Amino acid sequence: MTHGIEMKRMLVVAAAAGAALCASASAYAAKSWGVTNEEIARFDAKVVDIACELGGDCPANCGDGKRQLGLLTDDGKLILVSKNATAFTGAAEELVDFCNKQVTADGLWTENRGVRFFAIQFVREVGGEWRAANRFTKKWSARTGIEESKAGNWFRHDLRIKEVFDQKGLLGLGAEADKKFLESRQ
Amino acid sequence: MKLKQFTRAIFCAALIMSAATGTASAAGERMQLKGELIDTWCYVSQIMGGSDFIVGSAHHACAVWCAAGGIPVGLLAEDGTIYMVMRVGKDSTSVANPGVLGSMSHVVTVNGTVHKRDGINYLFVDEIVADAGITKLTHETVGVIPPFAVPQQ
After folding, report:
1. By the 8 A CB rule, do B47 and A33 touch?
2. Which residues of chain A lie closer than 8 angstroms to B89, CB-CB?
3. pLDDT along chain B (153 residues), means of 10
4. Distance between B15 CA and the closest CA of chain A, angstroms
5. Counted domains in chain A
6. What is the mean pLDDT of chain A?
7. B29-147 domain in CATH 2.40.50.500?
8. What are the structural domain ranges in chain B?
9. ipTM value of the model?
10. Which of A1, A106, A117, B100 stands the most exposed, by the fewest C-beta atoms within 10 Å?
11. Domain range holding A88?
12. For residue A22, is pLDDT > 80?
């Protein structure tokens, strides 16, 4: 089990590195991440605010990155984009710049337990320049004022996360449970 | 005359009911749901391992990371159905909602509206009516997933 997890972790790191390499080499094509029922795909669609699409609650600029965004295909299919190309981050920061615009999305599908959604690795306005879907960290650094050198491990420096862990512990069960767990590993 | 008025009233009432039914359909289905607030990316993709271990205390740290990073938070219902949380209360923030970060991995009961579209269940939560905390002590079986979430001494 542990070996499997380590392998998966290595795949994540390799995938992120691969995405970065692709960006610098102008080879804008999604790479496999080894996820369940994976299918690499490239398609054109319009970037939409999902809550707006479903319920008509439509703030300006698709919610300025505070809402989950999706891709609406020409045949009316709404696709949830759950992931971008950086660690532990979603796609809103990558797509919000293209709110209500037609884009070409490049990434991969994953499907399991009745859910199929898309992870985006590259995006461009139709006919425009490709960009890697890795802008989260730069935006996080600008938003928090924490230097970019720490942005690769943003989740270890994020004050919102620190606050939750300070209150609830790593396991979410309180400090005493964390202490007992950590002692059991020694 | 009275018959005409009655007939017209019935006709109008039928029209209104028809319109209301259509609106209700477009507005989604009101539901009460109980389930765990999960990190949908790791759970669905299984990038960290089998989904059965991507729940509870073992995955709490990663679930908080992913929620803060803007990955859609899901409610994993007791029957295994996944609902994507699009709103909580009056706050329409569905990316890194600060009101949700502290409840990741908790089993909650919510009232809300579900929109089903193209295979995805989108959940607009009106209120959280109960919070049972973390009920699955999965760390006792598999440790912490991913292991590097545990700070190195």
Report:
1. yes
2. none
3. 48 39 60 98 95 95 98 97 95 92 98 97 97 97 95 74
4. 23
5. 1
6. 89
7. yes
8. 29-147
9. 0.87
10. A1
11. 2-134
12. no
